[in-house]
Automatic annotation (TrEMBL):
Coiled coil: none annotated. It comes from Flavobacterium suaedae. This is Sec-independent protein translocase protein TatC. NCBIfam families: tatC (TIGR00945). It is found in: Cell membrane; Membrane. Belongs to the TatC family. Forms a complex with TatA.
């Protein structure tokens, strides 16, 4: 019986690609579960020192804005001992399921570099040899952007949102007793969303590479993008310029970096 010769990357069939994708998902899931198991063993620290920390008035972000408010006579809503709401669990398995899902979320964040590495291995057969050499740089830069986004979401967007939503009330008759899942939804959604938003330069890189986005397009819609950023910052921050600038400036920098990346990719495409 003749031996089967192993196909090269360029000779892989559609089913072979599906098989590779399946194993990518399997390995990524295993990595997330392992990291989630580690996070689960430190759940007390994660909940007390990380997740519920933004509810306390001594959280570093509140202290920063309180100091600014006292120094420059801004809005003093951040000068408080604790946010004016209670957190409650209203289902029998609420705290246990919350512990599990939180561990999985932390597991995803910790396993993100490994997931990127698996993704890179999956797409590398379609890249040129010189492009494959940038694997390590791609993993490091993309992971760094993601973690920076998570940190930005946790220390800036999330406390500003919690302060706004926690102090918002339609009547003194209504008392805020926030469901545990609702509170955690804000925490997780904000952190992961900001992590993904900070991947904008990477997304623009790939979109520019395949010709779907150009630097000219990004420059044309720059003013609209800035308006959208200002609207978002105005919603989640107190009504002062300093707070809005702290939220808006990183987003503007990301957008401008994306334009530079797109312009470089467009020039490179013309010379090839």
């Amino acid at each position: 019986m003749a031996k089967k010769t192993k196909k090269g990357p360029g000779e892989m069939s559609f089913m072979d690609h599906l098989e590779e994708l399946r194993w990518l998902l399997v390995r990524s899931t295993i990595a997330i579960i392992i990291c989630a198991g580690i996070a689960f063993t430190f759940s007390d620290f994660i909940f007390d020192e990380i997740i519920f920390a933004p509810k306390r008035g001594d959280f570093i972000t509140y202290q920063f804005f309180c100091d600014l408010a006292n120094k420059y006579d801004f809005d003093k809503s951040f000068c408080m001992e604790e946010l004016p709401f209670e957190i409650q669990s209203r289902t029998l398995d609420g705290q246990f399921s919350t512990d599990l899902w939180t561990a999985l979320t932390v597991g995803f964040i910790l396993a993100f570099p490994f997931i990127l590495w698996e993704f890179w291995k999956f797409i590398s057969p379609a890249l040129y040899e010189k492009e494959r050499k940038y694997a390590v740089s791609f993993i490091i830069f993309t992971s760094l952007l993601f973690f920076m986004g998570v940190v930005f979401g946790y220390y800036v967007i999330m406390p500003l949102s919690l302060n706004f939503l926690g102090n918002y009330n339609i009547s003194d008759v209504v008392k805020n007793d926030i469901d545990l899942n609702s509170y955690l939804s804000v925490i997780k959604t904000t952190a992961i969303s900001c992590g993904l938003v900070f991947e904008l330069p990477i997304i623009i890189f790939f979109l520019s590479k395949i010709g779907l986005v150009t630097a000219t397009t990004l420059r044309t819609y720059r003013r609209y993008a800035y308006v959208a950023m200002l609207i978002i910052s105005a919603i989640v921050t107190p009504p002062d310029i300093v707070s809005q600038a702290i939220v808006t400036i990183p987003l503007v920098i990301l957008y401008e970096i994306s334009i530079l990346i797109s312009a470089r990719m467009n020039r490179k495409a013309k010379t090839e």
